[in-house]
Design brief:
The chain contains 9 helices and 11 strands. It is of the alpha/beta class. It has a single domain, classed as Vaccinia Virus protein VP39 (Rossmann fold, 3-Layer(aba) Sandwich), CATH 3.40.50.150. α1 crosses α3, α1 runs parallel beside α4 and α6 packs across α8. The longest helix has 28 residues. It is globular and about 45 Å long. GO terms for molecular function: S-adenosylmethionine-dependent methyltransferase activity. InterPro entries: Methyltransf_11, SAM-dependent_MTases_sf.
């Protein structure tokens, strides 16, 4: 990988091994047994957003799947899912939960910037808080387009650009002031480990169009009135996210 990306990817892989040991392994079972999909830190129900539509019979690739709970939800809804993630530790959690709860679907260890799957294998590519933040958009968006058949859809969730501007340089939850410039937020290397990407809205539109997508929708997600802070992700507080969007859910169609 050019431009030092190999070392950044290794850094992210190591971070998610630690995150799985401390947090995501223990939290995964509760997500796997949910009866229907939700989105993001504050678990906004899919039935309130309607971005996925009817997935019965669709070939779906989930990029940066983590413990693959989203793929499990889609498989139960009738999709043929493949979950791809960089972290072997998180995929091992997914295998355990497949054995305990089902359903069983392929789990592939791989980088969303270089996906080991065939061209045109998917009707839907989805990523819930995975590829958009942790992968270079100039690399993973063309990969998503390559995987999709013409007319296929890309649906992905990421942190809001505003939240990225408001998180302190030494990490923690977003504050009520801008703490970094808009261009600075495009790529952030955190002192606690990990490299993230937070393009602006204009950047996302430009990069999606360049990769061959038409933007269909952008949903800005807030915390519900009775929502609590997330148990372990320190990005925004529930109080902050009731006033400003915590996350962005993008929907695009491949030409």
């Amino acid at each position: 990988m050019p431009d030092g990306r190999e070392s950044e990817t290794a850094l992210n892989r190591a971070l998610w091994a630690v995150m799985n040991e401390r947090f995501t392994d223990a939290a995964a079972e509760q997500q796997w047994v949910r009866p229907e999909p939700v989105w993001g830190l504050f678990e906004v129900p899919e039935h309130d957003l309607g971005v996925l539509g009817d997935v019965r019979g669709l070939d779906v690739v989930e990029l940066a799947s983590g413990t693959a709970y989203f793929s499990a939800w889609l498989a139960r809804a009738g999709a043929r899912t493949v979950a791809v993630d960089l972290s072997g530790e998180q995929l091992e959690t997914a295998r355990r939960l497949q054995d305990e709860h089902g359903p069983v679907f392929p789990l592939v260890q791989g980088d969303a910037e270089h996906v080991p799957l065939a061209d045109g294998c998917a009707d839907l590519v989805v990523s819930e808080h995975g590829a958009a933040a942790w992968c270079d958009p100039e690399r993973w968006l063309p990969e998503a387009a390559r995987l999709l058949r013409p007319g296929g859809r890309l649906v992905f969730l990421t942190n809001s650009h505003l939240s990225a501007l408001c998180v302190p340089a030494d990490e923690g939850v977003a504050e009520e002031q801008l703490l970094r410039g808009q261009r600075e937020a495009y790529k952030v290397r955190w002192p606690g480990g990990g490299v993230e990407f937070h393009p602006s809205h204009g950047d996302w539109v430009r990069l999606l169009r360049r990769a061959g997508f038409v933007v269909e929708a952008l949903h800005e997600l807030y915390a519900p009135p009775d929502g609590d802070d997330h148990a372990f992700y320190e990005i925004v507080s529930a109080d902050w996210a009731r006033r400003w969007p915590a996350e962005e859910l993008w929907v695009a169609t491949r030409h």
